[in-house]
Protein: F-box domain-containing protein
Amino acid sequence: MDFDRELPFSPICLLEALVPFLPLPTELIITIISETPYLDGGETTRMLCLVSKHFRALAKPFYFHSVVICGENQARGLLRQLKEDSNAASTMRYLFFSERAPRYRGDSGERPSDPHIPNRPGFGPAIGVSYQIAELVSPYLESFCYFDYTAYSFGPWMPPGTVSAPSIFSLPFPRLRELTVNCRDAIYMAARFPFPSLERFHSYLDSFVSRLFEPSRLNAVFPRLTHLKVTGICLYTNHFDFMDGVGYALGVLPSMTQENEHSDSHLPWLHCIILRPTLAYARGGGALGALASVVRMASYRLMMEVPTDHDMNHWNAKADWLDRLAGGEGCWKARRILAEGKAQQS
Structure:
């Protein structure tokens, strides 16, 4: 087929149209490339490295700036790259790390009742891989979202002793400003070092919620914490301890009647707590009523979102992490608030 030379989509016309334009200045290319890691977790940056040797040389410093890892194969691949390039770890700032790859609808072996739960863990190898990766990048990370193996274990098949040992949070994270984590135990139980720069902490929990709000320990590990969010709170048996913990964290004891009375063990910088109950555990009216009383007690510094299904935690966490990467509010914008038992738009 012959193209009309005058048509704008003619190959000859396009080629001639490009001739008068000089190549983009290197400084401009670097400026553009430096913004791509914030778009999609580094995927665009990695694609730019395939354009040409010139682009690869310019994009390489940003190649590991933001990384998304889902599953054991990707984790092993990242560890191999970090070991091959001694400078790579020092360039990483944002990391989403899920030790299990999520399962999509329609995959074989799907459990009808839990369509979004990732595949059953193959316990063992990736735990060591996770620790090795964290050991290399922890001094440089500023934002970290971590889902460990145990976060995906909801049943009797969980073998005893299958926890991350040693915990990656026994390592120092001096630059970390934002942390989202899904694991069985509270992070501060494993922390050997404080998180001096951490301002925002989002914890996905399935149980043992009252341990999260141990005020003195939280204050020691997260001395500059300003935002705290808890998703998946279980309120059947321990909601009274949980209420006390929330009150202590805010510096207001539930038993105090005077508005100007405060606890000495609260988190001094904390000004926002967001709670999101797990749907399965929020059907007890007494538990939600108890939380509503805490909301009234804490005024505007505490918000309670409508309950959500824990099967969606992985997907929500990744979407929130990417949104924060792009400059959005992510999980810190409470879109639906549960106030005194009624849902309303914020």
